[in-house]
From TrEMBL:
SUPFAM superfamilies xrefs: TPR-like
Cofactors that this protein relies on: Zn(2+)
Peptidase M48 domain segment(s): 39-224
InterPro entries for the chain: Mito/Outer_Membr_Metalloprot, Peptidase_M48, TPR-like_helical_dom_sf, TPR_rpt
Protein known as: Peptidase M48
UniProt entry keywords in alphabetical sequence: Hydrolase, Metal-binding, Metalloprotease, Protease, Signal, TPR repeat, Zinc
Signal peptide: 1-27
GO BP: proteolysis involved in protein catabolic process
CDD domains (UniProt xref): M48C_Oma1-like (cd07324)
Molecular functions per Gene Ontology: metal ion binding; metalloendopeptidase activity
Residue stretches of each TPR repeat: 305-338
Organism of provenance: Actibacterium pelagium
Entry superkingdom: Bacteria
GO cellular component, one term: membrane
């Protein structure tokens, strides 16, 4: 059962820490978008290289939350609140946030924290991680029922950094920025956003300040690093472009579409403006104008897979299923291994409700699933595809995994039991179902 447990532990380590932010009054989820994630990765790459890390082993994950926060929960994943991305004004500021979090990884802060969080059994570790995730969202009642200790202590132990760690991450991060040709002054600019936060009571502070201690002395030191590592005359056009794409698309989907259309105007024909107008019109909804804008973008960038993917999304959500399949197929041809693009293609194929579409959907969704463990929507579609192919055991397993990574372990256990009854005893799927049952049992005994 070791292989199955290693698989499921990895899923929960990456997913529970973000996807189970489910306080009763404020549910938080991940925002998954291929274009936004790719854009942020382009900003991260030079910083990771400067830190001596492999950028391909890191991922940037967006939490849908208006508050300002960023954190790392393992040695592979950097979590950014959507509110923070929309608050920042430049690519350099975004890279300053990324460099600071990368420094926590490179300096071993997270590795030491994970060693301290180890428990005797893997199922117990899963329960502890779940509690930490809930604690990070501020859901104290739920978090303390699963993990040992209160939500606040879990957050301090696992997510909070000491002032010594923050100082080390600031200095390392500034050095990485300078090596990458990015001015460390942007780090001081980011900290200026949070000035005065420490004087507020805990409930009014942005969570960044609660997990990243801020002080006048820290800001003074960061300004000193900026003076010590000057970067002059660097070409920031590429970084600025990708930041504009990431923030522009995020804002277009989260903010009022009328606001977006007023902000962008009608004359701007840049890539970002065309994309933002396409999203805003789609959300109104106005499919005709949305398709006009996205077609104009595709005329400018015919080999951009994200333009074809966005067209597929607009068509699919406008119930033009055949055209959506064609648009997604073009995106897959341009980016054949991107799990989110494959997932959209599979969803469009399922919408056809034909035997051939179902078969092709299952293939695309299986390929996407092998590359992405952080997508409950993908698991939902995969369960449908399995069910339509008559593989009910695999359908139940996919449903169980979807509930597990969104923190609904009681529901996950129901489907895991069904999967374990249908799948061959000892098979990889059966073992994964057993791990879900073990996690649910552990969580239940800790409540």
């Amino acid at each position: 059962m070791a292989a199955g447990r290693a698989f499921f532990a990895r899923v929960l380590l990456l997913a529970l820490l973000a996807l189970t932010f489910a306080a009763p009054a404020k549910a938080q989820t991940l925002i998954r978008d291929a274009e936004i994630e790719y854009s942020l990765r382009q900003l991260m790459r030079p910083i990771a290289a400067a830190a001596g890390l492999n950028a391909n082993s890191l991922r940037v994950v967006i939490v849908k939350d208006n508050s300002l926060n960023a954190f790392v929960a393992d040695n592979e994943s950097i979590f950014l609140h959507s509110g923070l991305i929309l608050k920042l004004d430049s690519a350099a500021e975004m890279q300053a946030v990324l460099s600071h979090e990368i420094a926590h990884i490179a300096n071993g802060h997270i590795a030491r924290r994970q060693v301290n969080a180890k428990t005797a059994g893997n199922a117990a570790k899963i329960g502890t991680l779940l509690g930490m995730a809930l604690a990070a969202s501020g859901n104290g009642a739920a978090g303390s029922g699963i993990a040992a200790g209160s939500a606040s202590s879990s957050q301090r132990v696992f997510f909070g950094h000491t002032r010594a760690e923050e100082s080390a991450a600031d200095q390392s991060g500034a050095r990485y920025m300078a090596r990458a040709g990015v001015s460390p002054q942007a780090m001081a600019d980011v900290l200026d956003i949070f000035r005065g936060q420490e004087a507020l009571i805990g409930g009014r502070q942005d969570p960044y300040v609660r997990t990243h201690p801020l002080s006048a002395e820290r800001l003074r030191r960061v300004k000193g690093y900026a003076a010590a590592y000057p970067v002059d005359g660097a070409d920031t056009s590429t970084a600025d472009y990708w930041f504009a794409r990431a923030r522009g698309k995020l804002g277009a989907f989260l903010q009022n579409p009328s606001f977006t259309l007023r902000k962008v105007g009608k004359k701007d024909q840049s890539d970002v403006a065309l994309m933002r107008r396409a999203v805003a019109y789609h959300r109104k909804p106005d499919a005709k104008n949305a398709l006009r804008e996205i077609n104009a973008l595709m005329a400018k960038r015919p080999k951009d897979p994200f333009a074809h993917e966005l067209k597929g999304q607009i068509l699919l959500e406008s119930r033009q299923f055949g055209a959506a399949v064609n648009a997604y197929a073009n995106a897959v041809n341009l980016s054949p291994n991107h799990p989110l693009i494959l997932g959209g293609y599979g969803r469009a194929l399922l919408a056809l409700k034909t035997a051939d579409g179902n078969k092709r959907a299952l293939s695309a969704l299986q390929k996407a699933r092998s590359r992405d463990f952080l997508n409950p929507g993908l698991l939902r579609d995969l369960a449908v595809a399995y069910a339509r192919s008559g593989q009910n055991g695999q359908a139940s397993l996919a449903t169980a995994e979807r509930y597990a990574i969104t923190g609904r372990l009681k529901d996950a256990a129901v489907h895991a039991k069904r999967a374990s009854d249908l799948l061959p005893n000892g098979s990889p799927g059966w073992r994964r179902a057993q791990d879900i049952l073990a996690a649910a049992k552990t969580a239940g005994t800790r409540r």
